[in-house]
Write a structure and sequence with these properties.
heterodimer; A: mainly alpha; Non-ribosomal Peptide Synthetase Peptidyl Carrier Protein, Chain A; 5 helices; 62% helix; 0% strand; globular; B: alpha/beta; Rossmann fold; GMP Synthetase, Chain A, domain 3; six-stranded mixed sheet; four-stranded parallel sheet; 14 helices; 30% helix
């Protein structure tokens, strides 16, 4: 798995995601499937936690509000790839 | 009777100075001691005894102060049951202090089964001069409550001796004609009026609650010292008429005044700006005078006989420039809360009072407050002071006022967020403001910004953080 995907997985696992649905989404994402952000139930707190994790652990700074501009996790992967390049 | 004895001194040394004046009545020092003695005799004849807990509910400020001085002279314990409080709050306070009698200007007031005594000002002011009371060892006491911006409030019982020691930090009142926007039913105002009377100063009271009318009245009566709340600073700036305030020292209190706001005030209102750092428990601690206002928004130097230290979590004194918890020792300060052992143990330790504020002492000795200890935000071990976020947000031209706070996160400890009041509701978006903050604060920027039409504040202009926190009760909202 590429590094950007790993970053997203670790940040999602750190964030408080409610319910079992998001966990299944992460499993699918680990198998290189794309996942819609809407399926992750990322509420405001979880989004902030997700972003802060990326920022503190990987130096990737995304404003929480901007996360929801992206439709899927693959789109976020592309964003992170751009930021890292 | 310490205060009455002082009034008798002033009666001889400055008889023509106005001790208490409003648009109904003016009492010079030549009359005040006599009036207080009249009222004291009357109260004694009605069964008021030393140590009896008496509530005052009198809205006329001259009458209220005469009643307060008389209760001190008789050695009673007084508590203000303010007319702006709800009946329920007044009743709770009365029960908390064990009220025996209510002195009130309203004959229809009822407070459970507490007996009432109706204030009859015509009777008091027409009476012939009474004899000086011979109870010089009697000491009156005064209940004051803390502002309670984080929830409940604590009660403190001050003796006349303590109040007089605090008053000695305000010797400048002797040469001042004082006006305060907050009426004496508010604790801080009442205490400052007592300080002024102790020092022989002149006290003028507001004719109404409208700021423009108060300013006009102050101007017409040559007021030299004008005490306002933090929330009135903007209103005075909006008046944009510096001539109204010439010759007047203006002292905002009750809450921090950020550096940008001070600058705006200096540019648009007056150079004579004095910003106090004080607590209910200690009285005044430090004061920033006109030469002290800079980008640190300092609280100036400690007042005479006040000691300030900055300590770490083990109470070790920190060097200058290092941020830690502030502790204070001052003559006349409280040594305990009235009915809270737990709070007393937390805030009064080893002869020091811990105001729950963080800050540091600069190399030049001035005190800089960084904010409440409880308000400090801990983001994964990164300490973030709300004031640092607020200062950046308030430097944005569209922001009127900002408050930063931390919301709980099981992963990161706390996450910084902010509530902002804009000058124009369409002036800037939350995302643009977040970008602006991030550019200045890096990791410390607020991860969420909410807009409010009016910042929740109390009568002193202090931010009601518990109300703001409710906006983020569930961050998903």
């Amino acid at each position: 798995m590429n590094i950007s995907r790993q970053m997203i997985v670790s940040a999602l696992e750190a964030a408080n995601l409610a319910g079992s649905g998001p966990r299944e989404c992460i499993h699918r994402f680990l198998k290189d499937e794309d996942v819609l952000l809407a399926d992750l139930n990322l509420d405001s707190l979880a989004t902030m936690e997700f972003c802060i994790y990326l920022e503190l652990n990987h130096g990737i700074s995304i404003i929480p509000h901007d996360v929801h501009q992206y439709e899927s996790l693959n789109a976020l992967v592309n964003l992170i790839e751009e930021m890292r390049s | 009777m310490l205060f009455l004895n002082k009034l008798i001194e002033h009666q001889a040394s400055r008889p023509n100075f106005y001790a208490l004046a409003n648009d109904r009545r003016k009492l010079a020092y030549s009359e005040l001691a006599h009036t207080v003695q009249n009222v004291t005799h009357y109260l004694a004849s009605q069964g008021v005894l030393p140590g009896m807990v008496v509530g005052i509910s009198i809205t006329d400020e001259v009458d209220h102060m005469v009643a307060s001085l008389s209760l001190l002279a008789i050695g009673a314990v007084q508590v203000t049951l303010a007319s702006h409080e709800s009946d329920e709050a007044r009743k709770l306070l009365a029960e908390r202090v064990g009220l025996s009698l209510l002195l009130t200007d309203k004959s229809d007031v009822r407070l459970s089964n507490t007996p009432i005594l109706v204030w009859d000002d015509l009777y008091f002011y027409r009476q012939s001069v009474a004899e000086v009371l011979d109870k010089s060892d009697v000491q009156g006491m005064l209940f004051l409550s803390t502002s309670g911006t984080t929830g409940g409030s604590n009660l403190i019982l001050f003796t006349e001796q303590q109040l007089s020691l605090q008053a000695m930090r305000h010797l400048d009142y002797r040469d001042e004609r004082l006006m305060r926007i907050a009426p004496v039913e508010y604790n801080t105002s009442k205490r400052h009026r007592l300080y002024s009377l102790w020092n022989g100063g002149e006290n003028f009271f507001r004719p109404s609650s409208k700021i423009a009318e108060v300013v006009e009245y102050a101007r017409a009566h040559d007021v030299t010292c004008f005490d306002i709340s933090r929330m009135h600073v903007n209103e005075l700036i909006a008046m944009s008429n510096p001539s109204l305030f010439s010759g007047m020292r203006i002292r905002p209190g009750g809450a921090e005044v950020p550096s940008q706001l001070r600058q705006s005030f200096l540019n648009n209102v007056s150079q004579s700006l004095y910003v106090r750092y004080a607590t209910t428990e200690t009285g005044a601690i430090a004061m920033a005078t006109p030469s002290h206002h800079d980008e640190d928004a300092t609280s100036g130097y400690p007042l005479d006989d006040v000691e300030i230290q900055v300590v770490d979590h083990e109470d070790k004194i920190l060097p200058k420039g290092e941020v830690g918890e502030i502790r204070v020792s001052a003559p006349g300060m409280a040594t305990a809360y009235y009915d809270s052992v737990a709070q007393t143990q937390l805030r009064f330790r080893g002869g020091w009072f811990y105001p729950n504020d963080m800050g540091y002492i600069r190399d030049d000795g001035q005190l800089v407050i960084k904010g409440r200890k409880d308000d400090m935000i801990n983001l994964n071990g990164i300490n973030i002071f709300p004031v640092d976020i607020e200062r950046v947000l308030e430097s944005h031209p569209e922001v009127k006022r900002a408050v930063a706070l931390g919301i709980g996160s099981s992963i990161h400890g706390q996450i910084p967020v902010a509530v902002v009041e804009l000058i124009d509701v369409n002036g800037v978006t939350d995302v643009a403001l977040q970008d602006f903050a991030r550019a200045h604060l890096a990791l410390r920027y607020p991860r969420r910004i909410k807009f409010v039409e009016n910042m929740p504040i109390n009568h002193q202009g202090k931010i009601l953080r518990h109300e703001i926190k409710k906006l983020f009760v569930t961050a998903s909202q």
